[in-house]
Amino acid sequence: MTNTYYTILPDRSALCITGDDVTGYLQGFLTQDMKLLDTQKLTYSALLTAQGKLDYDFFIFKQGDMVILECETGRVESLRQRLSMFRLRRNIELNIVPVQVVALWGDNDVLKAFSYPTDPRHTALGLRNITFQPIDKSEYLSAVQVEFNFYDRLRLEAGVPDGSRDISWGEDTVADVGLEKFNAISFTKGCYLGQELTSRMHHRGLGKRGLYPVSITGAALPPFTDLLADGNLIGEMRSSNGHMGLAMLRHDSLKIAFKTGVRVLGAEEDDISVSH
């Protein structure tokens, strides 16, 4: 029988947005279609630069007429300032509020007893409970509480990026990080900030690199450290936990990496081993 686990995610905050037509306000510049909130409780989205580079990522949900963006605590104030630039003459208020986030995963039969939304990025990440109230652990008696590292390794195995730990803001594109695979992008909603480059790279397959799950031999390299194979730059390390990690690698370097000491377990697989 599969066990069910939960952990409290650190360093998360909420940006609460209220005012006139908040959904329409956000629809014009976020990557995800805000209409999804009519049929699902939680979505995942991003804000790009005008040049199509990643600027922020966050989860989106609604409470009444208020729209909430759940994001990294360390970037929530800069996100508030960034979104304030788009208000123009709209009657829009943006307020930062503390939030608690619990990830819950494991036995599907147990998970069905909870009313929390599914993590929109990947089914392996289970449910995501976002609350403005202190965590009541009595709600989770059917699950085992584990340390964040347990969940972090699960995320890495699924190849899911974790904000600033894996994304180089202002440099990485949607295609680089693979956010379309994690349901952060709408290719049918119409125009949004950075849409032109995102759409062109997607439809023409112009991406030259990607974020891959990796198995690390030896000590993990610090995030954003160059990965060199026989003197050739093939990419850079991103986040890691134990022997698992994510690496940004050139798609055309996978076979070369194999020949020069970086063992790739298959260009069509998501499992890549990096030895250093």
Number of domains: 2
The average pLDDT score comes to 89
Instruction: Give the termini separation.
Output: 37 Å
Per CATH, the architecture of the largest domain is: 2-Layer Sandwich
What does this structure look like?
The chain is an alpha+beta fold and 276 residues long. It is 18% helix and 32% strand. The chain folds into two domains: 149 residues, Gyrase A, domain 2 (2-Layer Sandwich); 113 residues, Elongation Factor Tu (Ef-tu), domain 3 (Beta Barrel), CATH 2.40.30. It contains seven helices and 14 strands.
Essential attributes:
32% strand; Gyrase A, domain 2; 18% helix; 5-stranded antiparallel sheet; 276 residues; single chain; Elongation Factor Tu (Ef-tu), domain 3; alpha+beta; 5-stranded mixed sheet
Outline the secondary-structure elements.
Layout: E1 5-8, E2 12-19, H1 22-27, E3 43-48, E4 54-63, E5 66-72, H2 76-84, E6 92-98, E7 100-105, H3 108-111, E8 127-131, E9 144-145, H4 148-157, H5 174-177, H6 195-204, E10 209-217, E11 226-229, E12 232-241, E13 244-250, H7 254-259, E14 272-275
Parallel strand pairs: 1-9, 10-14
Antiparallel strand pairs: 1-7, 2-5, 2-6, 3-4, 4-5, 7-8, 10-13, 11-12, 12-13
Short characterization:
The protein has 276 residues and is an alpha+beta fold. About 5% of the residues have low confidence.
